[in-house]
Amino acid sequence: MSQYDIPSLYQFLVQTPEQGLRKMLVDNKPFSESHFSLLMKVVKNSNETSFGEHFDKNDFPKVKFGPAEQKLKEKFWADCVTCLNSRGLLSPAQKAAA
User: Fold this and answer.
1) With helix as H, strand as E and coil as C, how does the chain read?
2) Which of 14, 32, 34, 73 has its CA at a distance of 20 to 30 angstroms from the CA of residue 67?
3) Can you give the pLDDT of all 98 residues of the chain as single tens digits?
């Protein structure tokens, strides 16, 4: 179970136009255009549940990676969390009622 509210993040990423997301996220320190491209591949090739699983396990759906994306894979999710946190897009997971 993730420490973050991944379903809300996924919905935000799916529903926000890519151009707006690109302007918001790509700053090249550490989130580059290649990071953004890889994030969009994960979002487009996942549903809410599988996106959360990839996020938690630091892995990826079966997609073709470009050379720049291939280099990012190892640190991608850590960079992603850093970027999303700095933009205020990751909120803590809601505690489930007992």
Assistant:
1) CCCECHHHHHHHHHHCCHHHHHHHHCCCCCCCHHHHHHHHHHHHCCCHHHHHHHHHHCCCCCCCCCHHHHHHCCCHHHHHHHHHHHCCCCCECCCCCC
2) 14
3) 568 999 999 999 999 999 999 999 999 888 999 999 999 999 999 999 999 999 999 999 998 988 988 999 999 999 999 999 999 999 887 765 55
Q: Specify the residue for token string 């850590």.
A: 78
What's the maximum distance between 2 C-alpha atoms anywhere in the chain?
A: 46
Residue 44 CA to residue 60 CA, distance in Å, equals 12
